[in-house]
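[Q] Does anyone have a clean C-alpha cell version of this?
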Amino acid sequence: MPIDLGVQLPFFERVYGAVRQLGWGETATYGAIARMLDAGPEFARDVGQAMAANPLPLIIPCHRVTAANGRIGGFSAPGGSLSKARMLEIEGVEVKAGVVTRNLPQLGLGF
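[A] Here you go.
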C-alpha cells in the first residue's frame, strides 16, 4: 500500500522500505538493515536515526529493529522500551530484561 511519508532524506526512505518488509515476529538489527541496503556497518547509526524519526511507527514497524547484541534499545512512542518489548511479545518474540531471547528467524542477530 502506498504511503505518504512527507519529505524524508533519501537514505531514510530506503530504510523505511526495508523495515516494511519485516514480517510479524521477525526482527533485524540496525546493521542488518544497513546491509540490506548495501551500506556499510557505519550506517547502522543512521538506520537508528531513521527509526527514531519514523513518522508512521505502526506502518513502518520500527519496534522490530534491535541492537546487534539483542537489546531492544529505545523506542520513541509513548511507553518507550516497555511498549517496544510488549509489541514484540504480542508478535511472539520473547524479551527478557530488555533483550530478545527467542523469536522467529532473525536477520542479522545470529540466534
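[Q] Thanks! Anything notable?
[A] The beta strands are 28-29, 65-66, 94-96, 99-102.
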